[in-house]
């Protein structure tokens, strides 16, 4: 390690201790210092209104599943094409590599085990928010703010938990000039090297060149699997066999994907099915999705919206109205695949329990239309309906039918 690096870090630690407490006082402005860059002290001053310098990690995003955001990002394809090179650079040089979206949320990372563990401790990982308002002064936030490459060394970071880091990054611009995200190389401060910035610039230039020549991506797939069985893309029904619809449904409901043996078991259970038959179904679906299934661990790499997943999201948010509106019936009603049967039961139980927990009679009445023999649902509706409510006749009639059967 260079003595100059050690000296630089010591000076910056001193300046951080000197200025950050002062800038926390309302109305204070950063003063001049030969050791501190103006853009760093200005960022400190902005950041302190929302970020505690003593926080230990980046907050998590609340903007939806990160895997889906990544696979639908315009950076997904060009970065995936460079993934081998990015991993090699990160692992050989002791870096962790990250790609963010335009908001500063990390969508993808790679690196050796030691650096990834270190990064995960501060949530420098998919889902972590690294914009200035969330995590203060860092290279990612400066690059997003300025639209230019940026590096931040040791105690230039506002958050003290990052003082052991050095980060190099550059924004990635789309063909229209819009910033789509940032590519970052980060490592420990003692491995700081000027060539890291030129490496980042070169990689970003490659990504931008691929963006400029990339063909327009097909539209997202819409999968309807509640009470029906079909998938559409850009208004056209996709020619998928029942088994492929089962695979698509399982992958849409499991964003993290499956090891091949687990997906095979979810489809066939104990039935004797050859590996070639299973792989042929996967290959056909992959072609239909323009390659949109990862190879080693089967997972979707293209955006797929699914009514069953939307029902689960609505239930997680306590939105029983939306869940009932979207719940069109059992999941893939003709399927006997063990994984589908498991999800079918899970969905039916979740919707039913939400209805029984609701204090709104219209929820029980609506669900009761699809559950004519569920006496408990009809009794629940009657308990919630006022004595003069004309809808009591509907619930009472359904209850009588349920009792007879």
From TrEMBL:
Region ranges (Disordered): 47-70
Keywords: DNA-binding, Transcription, Transcription regulation
Annotated ranges, domain OmpR/PhoB-type: 235-300
UniProt KW Transcription keyword: yes
Superkingdom of source: Bacteria
Listed name of the protein: Transcriptional regulator
Organism: Streptomyces djakartensis
């Amino acid at each position: 390690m260079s003595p100059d690096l050690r000296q630089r870090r010591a000076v910056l630690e001193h300046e951080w201790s000197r200025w950050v407490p002062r800038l926390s006082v309302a109305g204070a402005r950063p003063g001049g210092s030969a050791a501190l860059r103006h853009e760093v002290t200005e960022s400190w001053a902005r950041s302190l209104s929302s970020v505690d310098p003593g926080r230990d990690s980046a907050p998590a995003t609340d903007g939806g599943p990160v895997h889906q955001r990544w696979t639908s990002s315009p950076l997904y394809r060009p970065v995936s094409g460079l993934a081998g090179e990015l991993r090699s650079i990160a692992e050989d040089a002791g870096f962790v590599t990250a790609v963010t979206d335009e908001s500063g949320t990390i969508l993808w990372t790679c690196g050796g085990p030691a650096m990834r563990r270190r990064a995960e401790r501060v949530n420098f990982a998919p889902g972590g928010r690294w914009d200035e308002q969330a995590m203060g002064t860092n290279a990612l936030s400066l690059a997003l703010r300025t639209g230019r490459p940026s590096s931040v060394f040791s105690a230039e970071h506002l958050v003290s938990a990052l003082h052991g880091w050095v980060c190099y990054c550059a924004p990635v611009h789309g063909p229209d000039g819009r910033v789509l995200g940032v590519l970052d190389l980060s490592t420990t401060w003692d491995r700081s090297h000027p060539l890291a910035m030129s490496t980042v610039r070169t990689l970003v230039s490659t990504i931008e060149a691929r963006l400029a020549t990339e063909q327009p991506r097909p539209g997202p797939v819409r999968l309807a699997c509640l009470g029906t069985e079909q998938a559409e893309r850009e208004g056209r029904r996709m020619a998928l066999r029942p088994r492929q619809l089962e695979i698509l449904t399982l992958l849409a409901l499991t964003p993290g994907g499956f090891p091949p043996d687990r997906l095979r078991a979810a489809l066939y259970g104990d039935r004797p099915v050859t590996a070639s038959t299973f792989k042929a179904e996967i290959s056909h679906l992959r072609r239909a999705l323009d390659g949109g299934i990862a190879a080693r661990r089967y997972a979707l790499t293209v955006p797929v919206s699914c009514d069953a997943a939307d029902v689960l999201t609505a239930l997680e948010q306590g939105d029983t109205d939306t869940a009932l509106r979207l719940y069109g019936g059992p999941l893939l009603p003709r399927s006997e695949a063990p994984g589908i049967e498991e999800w079918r039961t899970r969905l039916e139980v979740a919707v039913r329990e939400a209805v029984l927990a609701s204090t709104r009679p219209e929820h029980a009445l609506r669900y009761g239309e699809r559950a004519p023999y569920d006496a408990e649902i009809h009794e629940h509706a009657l308990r919630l309906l006022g004595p003069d409510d004309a809808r009591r006749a509907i619930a009472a009639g359904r209850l009588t039918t349920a009792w007879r059967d």
